[in-house]
Amino acid sequence: MSEFSHISSNGEANMVDVTGKAVTTREALAEAFVYMNEEAISLIQRGDHHKGDIFAAARIAGIQGAKKTADLIPLCHPLMLTKVAVDLELQAAEGRVRIETRCKLDGKTGVEMEALTAASVASLTLFDMCKAVDPGMRIEGLRVLKKTGGKTGLWSA
Amino acid sequence: MSEFSHISSNGEANMVDVTGKAVTTREALAEAFVYMNEEAISLIQRGDHHKGDIFAAARIAGIQGAKKTADLIPLCHPLMLTKVAVDLELQAAEGRVRIETRCKLDGKTGVEMEALTAASVASLTLFDMCKAVDPGMRIEGLRVLKKTGGKTGLWSA
Amino acid sequence: MSEFSHISSNGEANMVDVTGKAVTTREALAEAFVYMNEEAISLIQRGDHHKGDIFAAARIAGIQGAKKTADLIPLCHPLMLTKVAVDLELQAAEGRVRIETRCKLDGKTGVEMEALTAASVASLTLFDMCKAVDPGMRIEGLRVLKKTGGKTGLWSA
Amino acid sequence: MSEFSHISSNGEANMVDVTGKAVTTREALAEAFVYMNEEAISLIQRGDHHKGDIFAAARIAGIQGAKKTADLIPLCHPLMLTKVAVDLELQAAEGRVRIETRCKLDGKTGVEMEALTAASVASLTLFDMCKAVDPGMRIEGLRVLKKTGGKTGLWSA
Amino acid sequence: MSEFSHISSNGEANMVDVTGKAVTTREALAEAFVYMNEEAISLIQRGDHHKGDIFAAARIAGIQGAKKTADLIPLCHPLMLTKVAVDLELQAAEGRVRIETRCKLDGKTGVEMEALTAASVASLTLFDMCKAVDPGMRIEGLRVLKKTGGKTGLWSA
Amino acid sequence: MSEFSHISSNGEANMVDVTGKAVTTREALAEAFVYMNEEAISLIQRGDHHKGDIFAAARIAGIQGAKKTADLIPLCHPLMLTKVAVDLELQAAEGRVRIETRCKLDGKTGVEMEALTAASVASLTLFDMCKAVDPGMRIEGLRVLKKTGGKTGLWSA
């Protein structure tokens, strides 16, 4: 592949025409990391209920974010996601929270942007809830881990 | 500061009450980087019009994203942004595009989440447009650079 | 059935995976009642045009609300509704307006949440338009009346 | 007061002009009840984490719902909420969950529709998560409990 | 005035910074016309209730559209509209419906885009409801009639 | 055809039931014109980058607008567009910009409202960016050019 699919020959942004494409089951996994200071890490660690609501808010926001992908990213097609999962894991030794997302659908185009958007919105929500304690957090390593389905089949990082 | 402002004493997610806070001019800067392979870098580099529409789409999506912050992040207040700027710079030697965003308002609460959301959506849009050439891109270093205004005044990374 | 489908074994909110489910015609009916004082009832009763625009606004808001269900309810799947109907009936003797909604689609998951959301938004719109006359209104009896389609087939209240 | 504020003299739906009104601190409380069968009640009761994520999802959806009020209810003005709170309480003996919401802002118009919308969306989210166990749930008693601020001052149910 | 306010000196789309601008009462009027064939005109004319719901739907959609302006037009600021009015008049002799809209707010930037968006969405809604009878309708003459407030004061077409 | 499909026999606004309709490939073309004064025309003409970002913003807003059709027009069904194209052409001699849009999907209902909405939002975005130079612009001739697919097959203006 040697050209951007979303830019036409005269340089204009362009929604790819997927009208003729086959409906197949497609799935994508993405991940991101939120790095924070020790105080924030230990506040998340302390007490299940704290982590519960912080992680629940990020998880729910990530799921909702996946459904808004076509509204956020101009050239994305509207899609009928059949599954969105957002998992958060505190990796205290590394000073970070790891977020992994998974999206699925039976459709004509892949769902990696949906998985990335879910991870991005979950990360931002976590940032929002912890920023009073550590305004210097960083969101790192947002990328696609794996995608399956469609003409290209399996791709993994 | 030693507690998460968005989690109440019994562990529940909680929108901070800003009713009594003063209206001041607030501003926030954020940045992010999108790393991509040489082929993607050189396609962006080649020809102004190509870069034009790719960067224009990311810039516009970032501006629109900033305005959707309260819709994406559950505990953010609705805000009346008075300015959103999104700048993209191709840093070919580093194999990346740098995105810098700036948000302003006269209001009762800070705009760092808006600046981060703008940077995040601009990054995702860039990813979407280049993913046919490099599906292995990574979004890195999303963070607040500086914020001013409000009771805490200047904070910088 | 003995477990919540939307809560995973470790207690986390969870969007049900409907990827493998069959596409069938599904339909759901819901109802709600808005109770109001005599003055509000008689103002609605007086003159067709009054009732016309009050009921038209509630009907249109209810239809629009049905289409926003996946945006409002975190674990709902995005759906392609093929029909939404919202009917309002003034039941003056009972001091109330009855709202009945019906949603349909050919899809992989039921539409009862869409019917309930339509009834809910229509009720709230009616409340909004009558609240200057009766701020003490109550919305009661919002429930599913019947649903058909899918693996479970017919269910009725 | 003897006429609907939202219907003009010729019977047309009408957004009230609040341009000239004073900015005051306004607050509204609303409540709703979700009635469910014993199996659903005891599943919510069993284990903190279960209740945690079910209640967290409803709380977050309710907060997000309050921010969407002007998008859902046609004649509502866009508002800058400064506080939204959604509290859920399991009242097992009564076979129900009680939802209480509170909205605040410094603005030109009241926030009772925002409090009602928050309660409504939180109720619907609870319904969605429990419907596999009890599809016959009912949402009852959605009403305003109290509102303060503005020209009319305190109103309570 | 000799340059586009929304394009920076290096040609990039740019949200105008209104942070320092004064809050004044601003108002804008816009109009549009929907031309249709005789059959559509006479169906609208026949019976009040028909016209009622067709015009009510267009009016409500137009009001809702005004509130979505900043979501639709990339460089528009989010605004707190204090009044939106949408009026429709059947001008049978001219074979058209005239739509006039009016928006108001106390704010830092004008509301002509909101008035235009209201007129545009009301026109499209009318088109949608009549297109089965006349798919060849045209929407013409969408423009600003008058605006007041702000530094430039009164402007009229 | 002799009755409005969206108005029921008792005069109420009504979403057409498309549950039973066949899935076919459907396409629609629409156009609109934005008339502006010489100064605005020559500013658009001058320099590729200027036109680039102005046209890019309108093109992207138009694409995004098409995806919001069911949110804007009350009785439109939610659709899964497979292609949206928005083309702008400066017709300096005629003192106008011509906008042509094209929408496609495999679905149960036509996409002419989506094409019209794309053209409408692109026009409004162009208006917004040029209004500082010419507040007297007019949007004219918004109409469907052609539609194909479905039971009625080809229709052209």
TrEMBL record, chains A, B, C, D, E, F:
Name the reaction it catalyses. Answer: (8S)-3',8-cyclo-7,8-dihydroguanosine 5'-triphosphate = cyclic pyranopterin phosphate + diphosphate
- Record carries keyword Lyase: yes
**Gene3D superfamilies on file:** Molybdopterin cofactor biosynthesis C (MoaC) domain
Recorded metabolic or biological pathway in which this protein acts: Cofactor biosynthesis; molybdopterin biosynthesis
Q: Which InterPro entries match?
A: MoaC, MoaC_bact/euk, MoaC_sf, MoCo_biosynth_MoaA/MoaC, Mopterin_CF_biosynth-C_dom
Q: Where is the Molybdopterin cofactor biosynthesis C (MoaC) domain?
A: 15-150
Q: Which residues form a coiled coil?
A: none
| Gene Ontology terms, MF aspect | cyclic pyranopterin monophosphate synthase activity
Active site location: D128
Provide this UniProt record's keywords sorted from A to Z: Lyase, Molybdenum cofactor biosynthesis
Q: Which residues bind substrate?
A: L75, C76, H77, M113, E114
Question: How is the subunit organization of this protein annotated in UniProt?
Answer: Homohexamer; trimer of dimers.
Can you tell me which family this protein belongs to? Belongs to the MoaC family.
The entry's function note states: Catalyzes the conversion of (8S)-3',8-cyclo-7,8-dihydroguanosine 5'-triphosphate to cyclic pyranopterin monophosphate (cPMP).
What name has this protein been given in UniProt? Cyclic pyranopterin monophosphate synthase
Organism of provenance: Reinekea marinisedimentorum
Q: What is the lineage of its organism?
A: Bacteria, Pseudomonadati, Pseudomonadota, Gammaproteobacteria, Oceanospirillales
Q: Quick one: which gene encodes this?
A: moaC
